[in-house]
Here is the input.
Amino acid sequence: MKVVIMGCGRVGARLAGLLDAEGHGVTVMDTDSYSFRRLPPGFKGKALVGNGIDEEALKRAGIEQADAFFSVTQGDNRNLMAAQIARHIFGVKRVICRIYDPLRQEMYESLGLESISPTTIIADTLRKKLEG
Amino acid sequence: MYIIVIGGGRVGYYLSKALLDEGHEILIIEKSPAVCEIVNDELGSICYRGDGCEASTLAQVGTGRADMLIAVTGDDEDNLIACQVAKHKFKVPRTIARIRNPKNEILFKKLGIDVTISSTNVILEQIAEEVPTHPIIHLHEIRDKGLEIVEIKIPQGSAAIGKALKDVDLPPGTIVPLIIRKALRPIIPAPATILMAEDQVIAVIEPMAEDALRQSLRGA
Here is the structure.
């Protein structure tokens, strides 16, 4: 599977490493080349400097052939915009987006955008720890 | 009209100032406390501190009754999300986003944003076109002659309706070269031309005569 990941922070780099190890074709993008240091040694995918809310940069990352797109930068709005470009402009089949703000996540989820809110998940996990 | 402006930076500030002068109800949402303070000191308490992309902030400022939301922060993505939240969560009838990257125009349209624009002046012109109640639209300034060409619409109930152009008390020196009448070709009016409701009158005036012109063509 061809996968494009926008944002090479802890999550993006780890996800890229995991998918790469599973044999997927991974391209990871970040606006700062310094963040590519987080990629695991032996990473066989592509690391590309570029902004995921820019159509040209996405094309360079091979979005037109991609089967899946993840947006996992620090900015909710950037993630949402990139995800919508991937989905509505390039028609990527599987688009998943990280949104910290649970309210925003709820709304975009209802608009049909697949998303994950770490805020809700972590708060819930921590609460369960206390119970269990 | 109740208009919410997202972003109290330079564009947001001057845009709000102009809209306030036109008599609209304005609320600015701005993240930075320092910027909020400046706006509130200079324009009156119209700046609310918060994140304009957050549904909870928008709920607090009564976005449900807003007629328009204009997002003018410096970041395209923030402007997009603010408009989308306003549109989908609060059913704001018109959303306008400032954009930096001109390519985003097509994307934003596709994603349901009504209007995209890229500078303060264009924003003001656009609002003038979008809002039928806007009294005077500036079409052109003849700077070296100290004149301007404006468009003004004659509303229902105006005292000018049914009067010949020569009998309307226009400000001294006003020239009316053109009248655009609904569903008809534009006409070059004669002194005896009778004005009708909904006429769009193109006039050449001195900048100081704006209020007088408004009074003579839009006054009841």
